[in-house]
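Long-time lurker. I teach an intro course on protein structure, and each term I like to show students one example going from raw sequence to a predicted 3D structure in token notation. This year I'd like something fresh instead of my usual example. Would anyone be willing to generate the tokens for the chain below so I can use it in lecture? Attribution to the forum is fine with me.
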Amino acid sequence: MQIKIAAEVLHHGGVIAYPTESVYGLGCDPKNDSAIIELLNIKNRSIKKGLILIASHIDQLAPYIAPLNKTQHNKVNKTWPGPTTWLLPAGEESTFFLRGNHALQAVRVSNHPVVKQLCDEFGGAIVSTSANKTQRPAAKTAIQVHRQLSNALDYILAGKVGGLKMPCEIRNGLDDSIIRPGFSSTGTDVFQD
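-- Reply from a regular --
Happy to contribute to a lecture. Here you go:
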């Protein structure tokens, strides 16, 4: 029932919090510019930095990324579903609101059960950025989200975050370089605060 409510809130332009692989995420409909602006305002995050899109399968990302060649497809399929975000050539529906000042779109196919159910119920990919104000620690529980952001959010989807201790790895799909190490490493992120 909570998944259905969260998906409805997304369809109506709301901003929600939901559990992901390592932290709670903030999400909205990637086709709703007003919702994206609201999400950025909640985080106090610059639109220039860009945002990650998260999905339950690669087909949900198709509007936001250019068609992948065989090499790119094989590369991402080795890590998906899973905790690797790829920077891939942007598709027709990847806007400045999603990419910021970047030419590539950040995307991930998640293996987190709540994320998968949420994206399937919503019917597509959603925005994913850590649930926190910029420069503050990301929330790892619904209670932490509530304490830090509840007055600004339209819905908090309760659930457990995955077992990752670090944020998801980010890789460049053009040259395979690691933009942000993940899993057991530390690093900086141009897409997530």
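Some talking points for your students: The chain has a mean pLDDT of 90. The chain has one domain: 2-180.
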